[in-house]
Amino acid sequence: MKTTLILMAGAAALTLSACDNTSEPVDTTTDTTMETEDPMVTDPMATDATTPGTNPMVGGAAMMADQTIVANASNAPDLSTLVSAVKQAGLVDTLSGAGPFTVFAPTNDAFGKVPKATLDGLMAPAGKAGLTKVLTYHVVPGTMTAADLAAKITEGKGKAMLKTVQGENLTLTMDGARVKIAGQGGSTAYVSTADVMQSNGVVHVIDGVLTPTM
Predict the structure, then answer these.
(1) Which pLDDT belongs to residue 49?
(2) Hey, which of 19, 57, 84, 188 has its CA 20 to 30 A from 119?
């Protein structure tokens, strides 16, 4: 009789132990599910933090889409020579006007590639007419983004011709992923920073000075 009671007590203990063990996986599964949901909640926040369409900086300076071409260029250290040239040519009011304009803006380094005697001559009072021709050769009427330029190149089967304010054409092609611009006399430049949006158009920063027929 005692043996029977001991066996029954042992069986009951085993049954209770089995019941306790089956409940543990349920709790673990529930906790794991909750942990995997938490990172997913934060993912949309990370995506929202990278908002497309932000204006690129030029020379480390912020470019404001609600400011004019001249105002933004004046704040860009890399475009100080261009700004000086625009002032010397008397084009500040024009490029501060309603436009819109597409400007291919040479950097200081781009102007540095121009022979010093040539640049000094253009920047002198007597060279104002020639300087005006050079600067307006970098301006195209209307707003043409990088996507617009690429579309025109595609439409032209690899080549696009853009008529400038100066009156002569610029020739645009693709060199790999870069837009290459050819002027007169063998002058060329590449777009280094595209789509710097302005209140009166768009600026594409370039690494060379394009020359018209002088």
Answers:
(1) 27
(2) 57
Give CA–CA dist 196/60, Å, rounded. Answer: 13
Cα distances from 119 to residues 13, 137, 212, in angstroms, run: 99, 16, 14
In this structure, which amino acid lies at residue 58? Answer: V
Distance CA 142, CA 202 (A): 9
HSE-up of 147 (CA within 13 Å, CB side)? 0
CB–CB of 196/203 below 8 Å?
yes
Distance of CA 64 to the CA centre of its chain: 13
Task: Give the position of tokens 């949309």.
Answer: 44
CB atoms within 10 A of CB 59: 16
Residue 75's CB is within 10 A of a number of other CB atoms, namely: 15
Quote the CA–CA distance of 153 and 162 in Å, as a whole number: 10
Q: What are phi and psi of 20, to 5 degrees?
A: -65, -40
Q: How do strand 188-198 and strand 201-206 relate by DSSP bridges?
A: antiparallel
pLDDT tens-digit readout, 17-76:
333 444 444 444 444 333 333 322 323 222 232 234 589 999 999 999 999 999 999 999
pTM, entire model? 0.74
Distance between CA atoms of residues 198 and 176, nearest Å: 27
Whether the CB-CB separation of 209 and 164 falls below 8 Å is answered with no
Asked if residue 84 has pLDDT above 70, the reply is yes
Instruction: Residue 209: name the closest of 123, 97, 101 by CA.
Output: 123
